[in-house]
């Protein structure tokens, strides 16, 4: 399996950026950059020139005031602006792939025929630029659209023979949809998740994965979401991933784990501590907060590697 990890751009030459890069290089894990603005895009492009030949990386275009591409908008003038903005962003950023949520306007759970046609037509305009870049755009199931409408969208993409538009299957999001929104049991939800993966793969579109555990009834204390946990720390659990792993083998997986709250036992090296203190002093920041943030990211990076090791061990078990 080819692994990526969530990578947050903290701006400038922050020591936490270097901690992430060093961990990724040491463990041969690619990066998935979370980009919320054109400023972050510029910073990321500059930063990654130094690792372009060392690490693969994808770009997760996050919804924000600047970056919100509602391809389903069936008002032609607005749709055209979204397409133009998306093309501007894509052609200004390198990487091996791009990820966008399956966002609709305004957050609809269904797609009318008109909105589906608008979505497909927008993607048709973007496809030639992706072909020229030799990159893919992956549309992520984000729990906004109902799953049957998401599958309808992916199947329509397949029917139009767009080679560079695909699906991002988010394991935690799909599990949450079946477990909470449709009320299935844990075991039923895992089986539904497996069938969803099969259904998407059968369309023949390129597929990329966000992989993390999900605990629907114990949300993250800071972010309020039920998923994006270290594998084994949620309800899917190691046994659940043991059932899923045959479908993930040899795929591109992003270990999309949010900064963890159980960071208190994380141990920074003397060098890491001094760099954080020096950064705080230089930028007139709270040194204790910088050290706290350093511990959070250190523990999060350890959980990412732990998740990778768990998945690798499950593949070996299967063999």
From TrEMBL:
This is Uncharacterized protein.
